[in-house]
Amino acid sequence: MTRRESFAPRAVVTMKVLWIASHEPSAEPSTSYAGEIRISTAADAVETLRAERADAVVMNTPLPEVDAVELIHELRAVQAGVPILVRDAQATLDDAIRFTKAGAFHVIRADAAPNELNAALSAAIMPSRAPVRPDSDGWRGGLIGESQPMLELVEFIKLVGPRRCTVLINGETGTGKEVVAKALHLASPRANMPFVALNCAAVPEQLLEAELFGHVRGAYTGAMNSRTGRFEQAHRGTMFLDEIADMPYDLQAKLLRVLQEREIQRLGGTETTKVDVRVIAACNVDLRARVRAGRFREDLYYRLNVVPVRLPPLRERATDIPGLAAHFIRRVAENEGMPIKELRPEVLNHLLSYDWPGNVRELENLVEMAMVLSGERIFLAPEDFRFHRHVPKPPSSGPEPPLIPVPDHGLDFERIVGQIELSLLEQALRKTNGNKKQAADMLGLKRTTLAAKLKSLEGLSLTL
Q: What is the rounded CA–CA span in Å between residue 181 and residue 367?
């Protein structure tokens, strides 16, 4: 029985949202959309969408008697371009990727907070008015994504951020190590104090010591005045040392002393200055391997590696790609004074097929390029994304022979296809001892679809 009911009005927006749920959702949006319709079966949802246009669809899965991917295809066939959000408490990473490739706009946990669901709906319906992240914790603004690795990272920052302990961040280039360092800083009592970042690989070796600890007048040729270093600038705040593995070996001993004694000595000076600094370091290599190779001090490694954290590469959290891409589209549009552009499902398939060696930074750069190359179009196309390397294709040893050769005199196409279908149906029924529901599941069909096919194939002889 179809149930149609409107939510009690709160802040009403004139948008129509179609809900598909065989049970009451565990969380409702904090904003009510005028014209909301609640549907309890997949078949009724398709018919409703055929009869009246919706601005978005929310699917609470799993739904009985229907596969979510199949339903997404059916809904998009009825109304092309309708944003579909999937809420699933049991969806794995592979499931979420399947839903996204099928055309889902976003996959969200069924137990997500109501404001997260509302933000996802807003991003789908009104992208230009949607916040980047609906969260009362300001430090979460740059952490985009709801994948399991990202949820674990958020919990890590909640736990470690308020502490003074030194953190060592390890991750591939472009995974957002500085973003996480800033989040740790903003989640701490030092949030209103300086956050000072230094890339150890970007400063010439002969200048790095002065850059870190400062220098007195006359410390070296050209040092006309005394200068405070980064550690003094970060007093009572946070010092972020990126690419720590590239710090010169001799300078590592001086950094170790700063961590142990909490004091610095300017280059060329004799006095020491106490500093209260929380240190966060980062690298994109195996620091233990550098220690074994004699290129990094073991005592400094243990001083830095008090609380380690590994950032996942983008390929390990592929379900975050749609949200990240939408976030970067909004950012580019705002910075360049451009309109928000649509990210179509075929583009998402294109993005999901890439392995992202440059991780989130590469995605950000490619989105910016795509926004420019798309010109006056209101949507982004696959050809707008110029990947830096192609996705490798499996080697081919030549064309495969046809499964069923077509003879010169021709064949009865409908009969051959029917025989193939009948063969598959009978095999599945034999394997399930005649259980049509299990046979349908084995073939990725609805039970009603399997029954209809069996009826239509009655009397067909199997000659394959």
A: 24
Q: Is 5 in contact with 24 (CB distance < 8 Å)?
A: no
Sign of CA dihedral 210, 214, 220, 222: positive
Q: Which residues 6+ apart lie within 8 Å of 319 measured at CB?
A: 93, 96, 97, 100, 107, 145, 146, 147
Q: In the CATH hierarchy, which fold is given to the domain comprising 401-464?
A: Arc Repressor Mutant, subunit A (1.10.10)
Neighbour-count burial of 135, counting CB atoms closer than 10 A to its CB (0-12 exposed, 13-18 middle, 19+ buried): middle
Angle, alpha carbons 427-430-436 (nearest 5°): 95
Closest by Cα among 201, 167, 212, 207 to 185: 167
d(Cα 202, Cα 353) in Å, to the nearest integer? 33
Token couple for 31: 């904003």
Rg (C-alpha) for the chain, rounded Å, is 29
Cβ partners under 8 Å of residue 401, min gap 6: none
DSSP 41-98: SHHHHHHHHHHS--SEEEEEE--TTS-HHHHHHHHHHHSTT--EEEEESS--HHHHHH
- Please give the class, per CATH, of domain 17-129: alpha beta
pLDDT profile of the chain (464 residues), mean per 10: 36 60 52 63 82 81 79 79 79 70 74 68 54 52 86 91 92 94 93 93 87 79 74 93 94 93 86 91 94 94 94 92 90 90 84 90 93 89 78 47 63 73 83 84 82 75 44
Name the DSSP class of 240: E
Query: By three-state DSSP, how is residue 205 classified?
Result: helix
CATH class label, 140-310? alpha beta
What pLDDT score was predicted for residue 126?
55
d(CA 64, CA 160): 42
Exposed, middle or buried by CB within 10 Å (0-12, 13-18, 19+), for 61? buried
Distance of CA 49 to the CA centre of its chain: 29
Per-residue confidence (pLDDT) for residue 14, from 0 to 100:
46
The CA–CA distances, whole Å, from 256 to 203, 263, 315 equal 19, 11, 35
**Closest Cα partner for 116 from 107, 126, 129, 128?**
107
Tell me which architecture the domain covering 314-384 has in CATH.
Orthogonal Bundle (1.10)
How is the beta sheet containing 106-108 ordered, strand by strand? Answer: 37-39, 17-20, 56-61, 84-88, 106-108
